[in-house]
Design a protein that fits this description.
The chain is an alpha+beta fold. It is built from 6 helices and 8 strands. Strands 1-2-3-6-5-4-7-8 form an 8-stranded antiparallel β-sheet.
Length: 193
Amino acid sequence: MRPVDRTEILPIGEYEPIRPRFRARVIEQKKLRRVAVGDFMSVVFENRDTVLLQIQEMLRAERITSEPAVLHELETYNELVPGKGQLSMTLFVEIADKSEREAKLIELAGLERHVALEVDGRSYRAQGEDRSVEGLARTTAVHYMKVDVDDAGQAAMKAGKPAFLVVDHPKCPLRAELPPAVARGVAGDFDEP
């Protein structure tokens, strides 16, 4: 999938008038790209539109206007755009209670090494940065990951074969089937130029 180009980023003043429609459209899209994995974890499969929204919203929220800072945000968030044969996802650990969340993040240390996509009996390990917190045996509540899917896995997803998100962390094994509409939409990412 082609990264977001600098020419697609609008200045804050030009973004404001289109923001309500653009945000609403991408938020609806994200609903069709989100999968609950257990009671407190979810994954959103990222694409160019979700990344573009994140960039525009960051520029707006932080009032970023200098060109070097805009380019930094573009470079940072473009890492979420999936490459050829990849899916990109953001994994969220969503626990409202702060102390309960902290305990779970300690329990889930190393989570980024225990996530996979399973398609038609094949497992594709997700790759992400080590998100542990230096000096602490703990992970973070947000993980950015990519999954390389070979031609057979891509064909299986496109053919509607069941796909699952699998967490094989020893303290928290989870498995969630991608709803068919999500799997179909995400499989379309493989065909994006």
